[in-house]
Design goal:
The chain has 326 residues and is α/β, with parallel strands linked by helices. The protein has 2 domains: 111 residues, Up-down Bundle (Four Helix Bundle (Hemerythrin (Met), subunit A)), CATH 1.20.120.420; 201 residues, 3-Layer(aba) Sandwich (Rossmann fold). It contains 9 helices and 16 strands. A hairpin with a 2-residue loop joins strand 12 and strand 13. Helix 1 packs antiparallel against helix 2, helix 2 runs antiparallel to helix 5 and helix 5 crosses helix 6. The longest helix is centred in the middle third of the chain and has 32 residues. The protein is globular and about 60 Å long. The two termini are 32 Å apart.
């Protein structure tokens, strides 16, 4: 099953807000529908957003020039922190002078490249972990960086899948990932379908999992990687990096080359999305804080390069903690 695809001149995508209760597909015919799906996280995950941006550009390319420009800019800004979204839009739109068919061809190329890239980085990540650890590993992950965050394979969970296929994976400890529970709703759903042993923990227990020696490595994805190796990922990643450093275990980021952003010198230069506070004063439809409670709903955090043991892409392994830069 592909998380996002092109079918009969429109986008089809898994509605990730419906999981784990139902597998529901979205049929998206307009850029406005796509932008809405991205903003409400029905489509999410850095590589999937790159593909969505490219396919959205193909939709926009059918429109008159002024409409196309407005739609493309709104789409680029739908999730400002995730660099892949704007990357996908811009790469596809460079073909616009050749006509809408060329934009679509570029977008479909990006879609197929995502599958190949993530399979390659998954194999490279598994190789690196096995070369730097035990023959059988327990890992801890945060948020969702599996097939749902890509087209059909995964980044961090792609590495997990590669370890599992080699018989080298023990157990995966999954952080729930507040406030929208991408870990408990999405990652556990994927792991169960793959037959991978896993245990769900609350976010605040994540560092204690490492302190107790239950995991041999932390494995996460990324939404943007700055030129100095700083990593921007789902809020709650930074505490895991601190805990991994304290426990003396690798903190590994798995992300395609498209997530590397040479135009952001450091993580401090990246805009961190702040989402609606309603997400943290409700659990589903249930209110968990008094009405009017002030909130700061940071969607992402910054993990400094010196805490990042390795960044694994489809082409290479970078070691920021040793001073290497992307």
């Amino acid at each position: 099953m592909r998380t996002i695809d092109w079918r009969d001149d429109h986008i089809v995508a898994v509605d990730q807000t419906a999981l784990p209760d139902a597998v529901r597909m979205l049929d998206i015919h307009t850029v406005a529908e796509l932008t809405d799906a991205i903003r409400r996280l029905a489509i999410r995950g850095a590589p999937a957003l790159g593909v969505a941006g490219a396919l959205g550009a193909a939709l926009a390319a059918r429109e008159p020039a002024d409409v196309c420009r407005r739609q493309v800019e709104a789409l680029r800004q739908a999730r400002p922190t995730a660099v892949n979204l704007a990357w996908g839009v811009d790469r596809a739109m460079r073909r616009l002078p050749e006509g809408p068919a060329a934009v679509l061809a570029e977008a479909l190329g990006i879609l197929d490249e995502d599958v190949r890239a993530n399979r390659a980085l998954a194999a490279r990540g598994a190789d690196w972990l096995l070369a730097h650890g035990a023959a059988r590993l327990n890992v801890q992950t945060h948020c969702n960086a599996g097939g749902l965050a890509c087209v059909e394979w995964g980044t961090a969970l792609g590495v997990v899948r590669a370890l599992h296929e080699r018989g080298a994976l023990g157990r995966v400890y999954v952080d729930e990932t507040r406030p929208l529970l991408q870990g408990s709703r999405l990652t556990t759903w994927e792991l169960a379908r793959l037959g991978i042993e896993h245990t769900l923990v609350v976010d605040s227990a994540g560092p204690s999992v490492l302190a107790r020696g239950l995991a041999d490595a932390v494995l996460v994805g990324a939404d943007r990687i700055a030129a100095n190796g700083d990593v921007i990922n789902k809020i709650g990643t930074y505490p895991l990096a601190l805990a991994a450093a304290r426990a003396g275990i690798p903190f590994v980021v798995a992300a395609p080359e498209s997530t590397l952003d040479p135009d952001s010198p450091t993580g401090q230069d990246v805009e961190i999305e702040i989402r609606d506070g309603a997400e943290i004063v409700h659990m589903g439809q249930i209110r968990t804080a008094p009405a009017g409670t002030p909130t700061l709903n940071l969607a992402f955090d910054l993990t400094p390069a010196d805490l990042v043991t390795a960044i694994v892409t489809e082409h290479r392994v970078i070691h920021p903690a040793k001073g290497e830069r992307p």
